[in-house]
Amino acid sequence: MPDHSPAPSPDNRPTADDMTRCVAELRAALTLHGITLPSLRVDLPSYAGTYQPPAGMVSLGNCNTATARALTAVLRKAAER
């Protein structure tokens, strides 16, 4: 899946829009494989922090074992290509 996100801000810090778009794109890609991570979200403390390099982290959250196995299967299949 091509990265259509805009370039980071001039100080190389991801913007709120960058992070929100990243989460939306990941959610959409997972949905294509029938996978839902209910806690998938922008990690707000990393956005507000002063981490170097700028963090802009995404929280994948928790999932049940069925979802973890489905994600594992998709990743293994992709690795075989």
Question: What are the main properties of this structure?
Answer:
81 residues, 3 helices, mainly alpha, 2 strands
Give the averaged pLDDT, no decimals: 83
Classification by helices and strands? mainly alpha
Largest sheet properties: 2 strands, antiparallel
How much of the sequence lies in strands comes to under 5%
Rg, nearest Å: 14 Å
Indicate the overall shape.
Answer: elongated
Oligomer: single chain
Distance between the termini: 15 Å
**Low-pLDDT segments, ≥5 res:** none
**With helices defined by DSSP (H or I, 4 residues minimum), what is the helix count?**
3
Q: What is the count of β-strands? A: 2
Q: What does this 3D model show about the protein?
A:
The chain is mainly alpha-helical. The protein contains three helices and two strands. The protein has helices at 16-32, 44-48, 65-80, and strands at residues 41-42, 58-59. The chain has a two-stranded antiparallel sheet. The longest helix is centred in the first third of the chain and has 17 residues, at 16-32. It is elongated, with a radius of gyration of 14 Å.
Write the layout of secondary structure elements.
Blueprint: H1 16-32, E1 41-42, H2 44-48, E2 58-59, H3 65-80
Antiparallel strand pairs: 1-2
